[in-house]
Amino acid sequence: MTAYDVAGVRGLYTGLSDGWTYLNAHAAPQIAEKVSAGVSRAFRTANAVVAPEVLGEGQSGTRAGAHFAAQPAGTLEGEGHVASARMAIADLVGGKADAVVLGPSLPVLYQSLARAMAPLLRRNSSVVLSKLDPPALYAAFAEGAHGAQVRWALPDLGTGELPAFQYAKLVDGSTRLVALSAAHELLGTVTPLEEVIEHVRDRSRAWTLVDITALAPYRPVDINATGADIVGVDLAQLGGPQIAALVFRDAAMFKRLDTLSPDRTEHTAAKLETAVSPGLAGGVGPLVDHLAQLAGGERGLRRVRLRESMRALHSYLDELRVDLYHLLSALPQVHILGVTGEAAAEASEDRLPRLTFAVRGVPAPTIHQRLFDNGLVTTLTPPTPLLQEMGIDELDGTVTVALAPFNTRQDIEQLTRVVASLA
């Protein structure tokens, strides 16, 4: 495996020169210089006309490392930015560019999918959703889209994990869709996707829709390896532009969906899409290039480099995760949601380098301010329904920490020292 050079990685983020220690990757991930430059360049060129290419007989054009057919006269550069974004997202998740549906956010794309699934979701059908997910994400199906019955998978309130065994009872022959998240963005818990999808496959022909947004910044993702039929990802949460995508396992799945616009009758991703800014789309390719560059080098196929890079990143950040949990949990007054206490005794060690914690007897705003005064940027945890059920109100609020590719052990040690001064 390629060695991970964190010092070199830090040099890819010009924003780190301001002196702050950023531990808020879950809320406001830092944007790499390559990404911001890509967006700036795309906005400048989006409305420019593509220069005609002079090709020999039997040749096809090649632009920006991606293959294009000869462009019609008057084609704008912005169309190329959008096409490049599709290819980059396909590389990110191991899918195909023609199966990528773009949109401004995942909630918008989920709403579009719910509408388009009218042929599948009828009154005698069911969908299985997860209370681990943010309400904004499952809202599209929570009302019982097209009359389908809604069934709920519930997380363990002691650990914040989503037990897979319940899907053996929730899923049956009437189930048409199972939607869930691959990980929790604030708790760092990871869903046993393979086991869940095995239950789904054993009991139904339902589609599985998996939000990989929290997982993708830390681990390599392959849609075929997960077994999912559709994966959703919010690029902004990876340090990219405000664009999201649904990636289908097979473009042939579009045939089973209604179109959202009468002028889009072909069985393609266009049936579901909401237009995105070509200027923003121009930042997606640089984002995936950046992730591939972290430890994958700059030569060879991007998908191969990306896989190697993300494996190295996972290995590096997993070591930091162990330190983060070990050092904070060693402080007697610190309570880590899903980890501390008897109810969390059986918690899995498979977690992301993220956690939500409280210091007993100290209000969360006080913790947050003390950290900020010492140059540490974290966030006050939003009171989501799940976290409220897990007791954040009784703890007088909590603070969330999430690591990024540029964080170091020194960052974790500094965090621990400041929290210890409160505990």
Automatic annotation (TrEMBL):
Aminotransferase class V domain residues are: 85-415
GO molecular function terms listed in the Swiss-Prot or TrEMBL record? transaminase activity
**What keywords were assigned to this record?**
Aminotransferase, Transferase
Organism lineage reads as: Bacteria, Bacillati, Actinomycetota, Actinomycetes, Mycobacteriales
**The keyword Transferase is annotated on this UniProt entry:** yes
What InterPro entries does the record tag this protein with?
A: Aminotrans_V_dom (IPR000192), PyrdxlP-dep_Trfase (IPR015424), PyrdxlP-dep_Trfase_major (IPR015421), PyrdxlP-dep_Trfase_small (IPR015422)
Write down the Pfam families for this protein, in alphabetical order.
Aminotran_5
> Could you tell me what this protein is called?
Aminotransferase class V-fold PLP-dependent enzyme
The answer on whether this UniProt entry bears the keyword RNA-binding reads no
